[in-house]
Amino acid sequence: MSTIQPKIGEPVSDELALVQAAKGGDVAAFEELVRRYDRNVFRIAQHITQNREDAEDVVQDAFLKAYGNLNQFQGQSKFYTWLVRIAVNEALMKLRRRRPERTVSLDEDVKTEEDSLPREVADWSPNPEQQYSQAELRDILTRTIQGLPASFRTVFVLRDVEGLSTEETAEALDLSIPAVKSRLLRARLQLRERLSRYFRRRDNSDGNSKHDSGDGNQ
Amino acid sequence: MKCSEFLQELTNYLDGVIDDRTKAELEDHLAWCHNCYVVCDTTKKTIEIYRDSQLYELPEDLRSRLRSAIVSKCHAKKKAGPERV
Asked: CB of A73 within 8 Å of any CB in chain B?
């Protein structure tokens, strides 16, 4: 089985030059950085806040905060990782404001029933996404990921949707590498479990079995 | 290798960050444990579906509106001097 190939990011060779120019007051250079990353920031913000207006605000606030604090960017990390860190914090603030009844923290290390071994182990149809229209598929994927705790959702989006490395994700979220890996595994398994309800092979409805307790023998 | 041990290594395996010996052990397990094969395969598909899903694309009109707002505030900030946000 082949491994997941990460998304290839945009070239960053000229990025430090843009950041330097923006630090010196070149707004056009900063605009180029906005153009490069606004879609990513919007997607991350919308995944975290689950609200379109909040996501729009996060895009503006995060870039303005980045612009105002460019002198604090030392260039040890990629500009994008630094920007994502700002955007995630802005998005979490929005989420907390909207849901004051719930504490929303990236440190949230939620134990859920779904942390147990996978239960749904039926194989999927060969092209599961083609069973649904674009709109239906989008709805399924949105509702499924929205069901995850914010801390799992954020790690999954940064690693698997935006293609940040484990180290970059840890840096952007101020988490340890083992914490990122543990949340990522659980996020992936929970999403898989939930998507299986939609994508499992239809002609095999009797074929799914409970996952055994782990004492397999050869 | 037990299924639970396989699952612990699943993320490293899918990300390709694993030493050759562990990889061989995992693949040996996959060769005979159908359940783990299915879990591994469908987890990989889960990641690929989300990665390719284009959820929350930023529409071009909104995009240029946001960019204009950001740029004009940057100009205003520049005029106002080095005050921080």
From this structure: no
